[in-house]
Amino acid sequence: MSSLILLLVYLLVMICVGVWSLRNTTTLQDYFLGGRTCGPWVSAFAYGTTYFSAVVFIGFAGKQGWLFGFDCLWIALGNAVFGATLAWIVLGKKTRNMTQRLNTMTMPEFLEARYESAHMKMIAAVLIFIFLLPYSASVFKGLGNLFESTFHISYDLSLIILVAVTGIYLVLGGYSAVTLTDFIQGFIMIAGAVAVCSVITFKAGGINTAISRVNEIYSQHVPPAQQPSILTIASLVFMTSFGTWGMPQMVQKFYAVKDEKVIPKATVICGFFALIIGFCAYFPGVLSHLFFTAETLPRLASGGIDFDKIMPSLFTQHVPELLMALMMLLILAASMSSLASMILVSSSAITIDLYKGYLNKDVPEQKSVLIMRVMSAIFILATYLISRLQIGFIVTLMSLSWGVLSGAFMAPYILGIYSKKITKAGAYAGLYTGAASAVILTMCLGPANSPLAASIAIVVPFIVTPVVSLFTKKISPELIKKAFGE
To answer: Which pTM was predicted?
Structure first.
């Protein structure tokens, strides 16, 4: 009962935030970027809560915790050092300043302005809308599984509840609602993650005993021949840490920063946040070896291990009811933040980049905001339908999305803010090579190697883009001066 009460209170607060934020979203920039007025704590928590979702706490923690053992903690460390801290250091200031100078709000708009190519904006917008769908669906899928295990309500009803609440507070409040809820959700995530990790560790006999016992039985549960290789571990660390650098919903956080003074403080806050959340997400997954045997693991109808249900089963069986309620809020907070950011970016791809950018450039501001709200609702509905079909494992869905989007955008984006020599043809070559590599390699290597496919798709464009740029027409000097503030 306490879980249900806390859940209802939380959902009501989210709806109230959306209604309250409605008055602050009169322009398209207000709805999408909160007027570019975000301070260090809000910016850091917005980035961190978008980074971590049900995908990490349920899908990744369950699968990597069981298969990788303590090696999965390298993922947590990589996420904190590279995915959060280094991302702010390398990208924060450059992105904020160049997008201000070019007057762009989205990744497709940035690519159009930086490379003088309207068609690149259209291609980027289509990629974002299509490939953020499976990523969003993977988040809903993880939440649906947890709701089903915790409240013993159907997976379908869980999805309907989540879709309804996310739709209400996001469609009404836009980015203002997202940043305010991110701030609240950040503290919920820290409190819940630390508390649950501590309880699971205590029930496992304390940290020293737990580590010793896992080391003893890990090889019994996962024979050496089935244990992941160094390459597999490295590819996951790389994909989940550096892959975020090219994800539009993550890059958006740099656009909305108030000023340069915010960035150093946000860097430190975000790094510590990611370290706490990452460790507390993966460590209980490793300890699942002490609570399950090969016979008691959740299974699919085919007989294989249902990795998406390892963590929900562990929590419902071994976490007290009140703490389980906090855990539910933790995962819900993380996931709704990620979902909101992805939905905003996806709806902007249609509204700002395609409709306002091509079909009706003179569309009034109020109508643009209305279209953004409508597209947000449509995207939520499409995500629900994909989640309802239960297509694929969470990790595979996420890896495909990360591979395509980061593969397509990361090289043109990062090289574009640092180098004056990258050409339009080079950017096109990087975009096409990254997206195509992710899809083809995922199909050829199979779901088990999807992180490796995504990692290759991210790296290859960093070779292709500058090489093609050496032999193709340069960007006009006037645009270079404007973009780099000269």
So the answer is: 0.83
Burial tier of 94 (Cβ tally within 10 Å: 0-12, 13-18, 19+): middle
Q: What is the DSSP string of 227-292?
A: SPPHHHHHHHHHHHHHGGGG-HHHHHHHHTBS-TTHHHHHHHHHHHHHHHHHHHHHHHHHHGGGT-
3-state helix, strand, coil in the chain (%, to 5): 85, 0, 15
Cβ atoms 403, 442 nearer than 8 A: yes
Handedness of CA 228, 234, 236, 237 (dihedral sign): positive
Of 437, 445, 444, the C-alpha closest to 406 is 437
User: What is the CB neighbour count within 10 angstroms for residue 147?
Assistant: 23
CA angle (483 as vertex; 482, 486 as ends), nearest 5: 55
Please, what is the average pLDDT of the chain?
82
Reply yes or no on whether the pLDDT at 291 is more than 60: yes
The token pair at 234 is 């490295």
- pLDDT one-digit tens code per residue, 361-410: 777 767 777 777 787 788 788 777 777 776 555 556 666 777 888 899 99
Distance CA 63, CA 286 (A): 9
Tell me if 69 sits within 8 A of 214, measured CB to CB: yes
Mean pLDDT within 95-101: 90
Report how far residue 250's alpha carbon sits from residue 155's, in angstroms, rounded to the nearest whole number: 29
Give the whole-angstrom CA distance, residue 66 versus residue 57: 13
Task: Check: CB of residue 382 under 8 Å from CB of residue 131.
Answer: no
- Check pLDDT > 90 for residue 427: yes
Helix (H, G, I), strand (E, B) or coil at 378: helix
How far is residue 262's CA from residue 269's CA, in Å, rounded to a whole number?
11
